[in-house]
Amino acid sequence: MAGRHALAGPRELQGTILLSPQYRSHRTASRSTRCMVTKREDLYDKDWKKGYFGTGYFVEGTRPTKEQYSYLRQLEKKKVLSGVEKAGLLSKLERAGLTLSKIEDWKLLSTAESLGALSLLERALETEPGTIASLSIPPLIASIAILTLVPDDNPALAAVKYSAAAVLLGSTGAFIAGAFLLSSLSDE
């Protein structure tokens, strides 16, 4: 019997159970079960380095890599500029006194370029939304620690305590809002 199964192909073995008699059930059915496994995609992160706060070598999912993804294309698909036009945001800014010539006179763009704000924005757009959201945890813990550990003995110390906690909570909210915005832009 074992010799017959050793040379048999998959069609001949489809209805047979190859277990010893003590493991066979009383009811033997000859039915085949097929399951469909969804394709899983593992993306390789070239910039990953082993460190104390490493997140993993492979990222599982279907999110496109940095080279394939364009936030400007996503803004075009979501018709953000049309929404700005319909809301009349540019005319409201002009009525408030903010025009392109004033931005040019104040040299805001050259200042932002010299401070590296544009490269910082580019790096933030290339970062995963989950990483940006996880950056909100340390300021949150620090604000809770300040509120619980620093005493309210005098008004000056209380003002410093509450203003530091407010700044830290504001940065927590900014990280979470930035991650949400980046996540909504990257959804297709």
TrEMBL record:
Superkingdom in the source lineage: Eukaryota
InterPro entries associated with the record: DUF1118 (IPR009500)
Matches recorded under Pfam families: DUF1118 (PF06549)
Keywords: Membrane, Transmembrane, Transmembrane helix
Transmembrane helix as UniProt keyword: yes
The keyword Transmembrane appears for this protein: yes
Transmembrane segments: 132-150, 162-182
Protein name in the entry: Uncharacterized protein
